[in-house]
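re: that chain from earlier
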Amino acid sequence: MRSGVASITRLGALLACLGVVASAWTAVPVPPEVEHSEPEVQARYMSQEADRSLEEKLKVGKQRYEQRKAFRSALVTNLRANAEQRMEFILGETEPAAAQDGTAKRTNWALVFCFFVAGAGGALLFCSRKKATEPA
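^ sequence. v structure.
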């Protein structure tokens, strides 16, 4: 049983290595004129392709870094402005944004009183019915 598992493991490792080699072989497209030339020319071509690929990756990486840096800078600026606005409001230096616009709503005290009376009346009705249903 143990030798069967070992042979399957070895076979899997061999197939994985072959897959890596095959994918590495086809990773860089080589033109036919370079493919059939001397090994030094092939090595120089592969070195140039590797350098070009590295430069492109560095360029893309730098662009992404700059984008993230700009986003974080904008986020920090926005958070700082919001924090300053909240601190001014908390300390009472400014009025709320709605009050500054003149669109602040005033409390309708008559409506508040009506809701209070309705709530109190509902509570009294509930208590009186509860007492009426209790056995004496």
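The helical segments are 2-25, 32-35, 39-90, 97-101, 109-133.
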